[in-house]
């Protein structure tokens, strides 16, 4: 769906459900100024069109064992499409890798990785290197604290 196909009601709904996807249709309708049924139809269309790709719970890391967050920068040997596609598939299949960005600069990929400890992170990255020979090297930054954690996308 092109950006222009989203009207003001769609944008307001997207902003609201990004901040709290568990709101009822009645509550959303009241805030947006539509009927509950219109809100439900719009949300269904936004899902069907791939604008809303998932609904997820945001978990407080401190309440589930305080995992560590690592920011890894990967450099690859060759940017041949089939090698990059294979690496992307591998990265997407790993639960501990929360986010993957294909970037410009000295690194080719930036990863946000969550692991219970440094040993588990090291094991994951050792597997990554062993199973993906196109990865030349990686560098790691350890998050000492989290100032903000969000997947909110402005829709104004």
Automatic annotation (TrEMBL):
Any GO BP annotation: response to amino acid
Ranges that cross the membrane: none
SMART domains (UniProt xref): HTH_ASNC
Domain HTH asnC-type residues, every copy: 6-67
Pfam families: AsnC_trans_reg (PF01037), HTH_24 (PF13412)
Domain of life (superkingdom): Bacteria
Keywords attached to this entry: DNA-binding, Transcription, Transcription regulation
GO cellular component, one term: cytosol
Record InterPro entries: ArsR-like_HTH, AsnC-type_HTH_dom, Dimeric_a/b-barrel, Tscrpt_reg_AsnC-like, Tscrpt_reg_AsnC/Lrp_C, Tscrpt_reg_HTH_AsnC-type_CS, WH-like_DNA-bd_sf, WH_DNA-bd_sf
CDD domains: HTH_ARSR
Gene Ontology molecular functions: sequence-specific DNA binding
Protein name (Swiss-Prot/TrEMBL): Lrp/AsnC family transcriptional regulator
Species the sequence originates in: Sphingomonas naasensis
Classification of source organism: Bacteria, Pseudomonadati, Pseudomonadota, Alphaproteobacteria, Sphingomonadales
């Amino acid at each position: 769906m092109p950006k222009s196909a989203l009207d003001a009601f769609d944008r307001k709904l997207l902003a609201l459900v990004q901040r709290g996807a568990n709101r009822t249709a009645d509550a959303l309708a009241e805030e947006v100024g539509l009927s509950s049924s219109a809100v439900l139809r719009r949300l269904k269309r936004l899902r069907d069109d791939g604008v809303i790709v998932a609904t997820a719970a945001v978990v407080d890391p401190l309440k589930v064992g305080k995992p560590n967050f690592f920011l890894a920068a990967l450099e690859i040997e060759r940017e041949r499409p089939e090698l990059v596609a294979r690496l992307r598939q591998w990265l997407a299949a790993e639960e501990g890798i929360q986010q993957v960005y294909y970037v410009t600069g000295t690194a080719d990929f930036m990863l946000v990785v969550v692991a219970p400890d440094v040993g588990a992170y090291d094991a994951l990255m050792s597997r990554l290197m062993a199973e993906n020979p196109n990865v030349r090297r990686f560098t790691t930054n350890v998050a000492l604290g989290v100032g903000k954690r969000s997947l909110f996308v402005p829709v104004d």
